[in-house]
């Protein structure tokens, strides 16, 4: 049978576990997120076979299942080395693609990448995935010395060089993007915004929650101020719906807060893959506060694992305090939410319970955000009456909560704002001609 006669959407799942029954729930969801129809599965509990991952007999079973279902792909939940991928390919019908968990995640990311940054990140991750495989092919080709294979080997050696130089060019372009984004975050802070980021396992409900937190009416006004603010944050019951970042202004009376939604976390990601998405995750790492969103409707063991994965992903770089948000409370009886919160108390103290779809608990969450962010400072400036002063007063109105402005011989402005805004207004006041300060 040739590749063209196979069902192009069909995939057979394969998974090996060292001990216990292999759980294929997540890899099935991932396969579906990539657009496959799951045609069947083969699992095995045993030590890793260095050549084939699974045992010989299991691989024969896998090949029979692939033949019967006419699936075009085999998706392993395990990490496959280059040699294992190659060997498995020789045991399966011609034209069947062998993917491991990371290759599959890369395919999903590739399908979702819309922005220049996302496309570069996907390409970087793909090249970093491909590099050791090309190196393996080169050495296999040398060893095999099959006619025709040597030519391929030479081709692959130049491919190896191309990959390396492309990787360094992409890295340069991405670090420029990172610098631009860092500048933008600083500008936003200087103009009085606190930056809050939504983080959490994929499908926890981050994008849904963003819509609840955001001030819909403000979006248009926002767009003029910050042309990069998006108005949409798609939600779907599918893994990795969100790949880039979406930032919106939160609906808060006392503060100006920007909330950023971003790519979800997943377990067992190799370091290089997380690294490739660093500039997207910077929105989380460099926030003033992180909301770690958890799907509380899942079994407690799954929740615990996902919280641990999220903490691991945040751990090295995150600089901000973390508030855990137990989402989807509408799907769970109240007692269960309390029980799960108690079971998680060591990992996630004082969580806030919400429903992103129904809006329950969202007010509590906004209050909590207000309390966790650095407190506003109070300031009272006495300024001379002049045109420059008028423009400073209007800047203070834009960036602070003004309690009172008194226009007499002098102008007295009483306000509260983020410390950086207070500092900046003092500096600007000092630059005014003949300023008096109380
Ligand atoms: N019942 C219920 N479903 C919810 C709630 N919040 C989100 N969902 C559903 O959960 C699914 C995932 O929601 P998203 O908001 O896309 O999740 P996400 O964390 O942004 O996911 P990724 O972008 O894939 O990382 C969607 O089908 C939502 O409708 C909730 O509070 N209750
Ligand atoms: Mg999302």
Automatic annotation (TrEMBL):
Q: What is its main location?
A: cytoplasm
Task: State where the protein is found.
Answer: Cytoplasm
Identify the residues that bind GTP.
200-207, 261-264, 327-330, 355-357
Q: Which UniProt keywords apply?
A: Coiled coil, Cytoplasm, GTP-binding, Magnesium, Metal-binding, Nucleotide-binding
Tell me which residues make up the Hflx-type G domain: 194-377
Q: Does the keyword Magnesium apply?
A: yes
Q: Which GO terms describe its cellular component?
A: cytoplasm
Molecular function (Gene Ontology), one example? GTPase activity
Q: Which PROSITE patterns match?
A: G_HFLX
Q: What residues bind Mg(2+), as annotated? A: 207, 242
Which InterPro entries does the UniProt record give?
G_HFLX_dom, GTP-bd, GTP-bd_M, GTPase_HflX, GTPase_HflX_N, GTPase_HflX_N_sf, HflX_C, P-loop_NTPase
Q: Which residues form a coiled coil?
A: 110-190
Q: Which cofactor names does the annotation list?
A: Mg(2+)
Disordered: region residues: 1-25
Under the heading SUPFAM superfamilies, the entry gives: P-loop containing nucleoside triphosphate hydrolases
Q: Which HAMAP family match?
A: GTPase_HflX
What the record says about family reads:
Belongs to the TRAFAC class OBG-HflX-like GTPase superfamily. HflX GTPase family.
**Assembly mode:** Monomer. Associates with the 50S ribosomal subunit.
Q: What does this protein do?
A: GTPase that associates with the 50S ribosomal subunit and may have a role during protein synthesis or ribosome biogenesis.
What is this protein identified as? GTPase HflX
